[in-house]
Amino acid sequence: MTAATEPVLNEIIHAPNRLRICAFLGTVDRAEFSAIREMLGVADSVTSKQLKVLEDAGYVKLSKPTGKGRVKTWAALTPAGRGAYKVHVAALKALIAG
Amino acid sequence: MENQSGNEAREALSAIGDARAAAAERLVAPWWYYPVLGLLAAGAVLMASLGNVFVFLGTLWVFTVGLGVLMGLHRERTGLWIPAFRSGRASRWAWLLLAAYAVCVPAAIITGRLASTEWAAWLAAVVLFAATAVAGSRFNEALQTQLRGAP
Prior knowledge:
The complex is a heterodimer.
Chain A: H1 11-14, H2 16-26, E1 30-32, H3 33-40, H4 44-56, E2 60-63, E3 74-77, H5 79-97
Antiparallel strand pairs in A: 1-3, 2-3
Helix pairs in contact in A: 3-4
Chain B: H1 6-26, H2 33-50, H3 53-78, E1 80-81, H4 91-115, H5 119-148
Helix pairs in contact in B: 1-5, 2-3, 2-4, 2-5, 4-5
Keywords (chain B): Membrane, Transmembrane, Transmembrane helix
Transmembrane segments (chain B): 31-48, 54-73, 93-113, 119-139
Protein name (chain A): MarR family transcriptional regulator
């Protein structure tokens, strides 16, 4: 593999909380805001901020399905987000492999 | 970022593992989830085989609504959603269960109508209840193992 095709770390995903959000969402189809917040163990505002960064990058899609009861926010990785996350994980593994 | 050490990369992969484990922990279905789904399926195949067309349609409606309520409860309880047929290697249990439904339901209905016997319907109901409970439990286990594995 040449240097040009080696996976590179993604600066948006690399931040610890955003990396954990991508890893969490990478395992499921979508996750509710409170499940993400509890997984991170941080405040609502921190969770919102990190999700907004990922949404602005086109890596996460946020939705608020209407229905009975309180409206909840659900987050899902976009195809671009899944791809970027996979490349980032590959880059981390390449770093360890040296 | 170019200077990131192997240790930092290991820490990042460890954080990924923690996040995946957290998802696995939340996704565990309650013990009653698959037995209730099995009861719905067993009831549906019994009514579809033994009743008239109106009973069949009513049963179909009850099964569909019951399935929707079960899935909705699970989604609300866990805050996560993962489609059974798009769950990686664990999906094979969902496909296997679908195959059991595809064989048992028509076989019970056709046998019941043509031979006017009830035993096929009762046999299909027992098989579907057991298959749903077992395949559901195996699906749960496979999904847990998969999520806790390497990213």
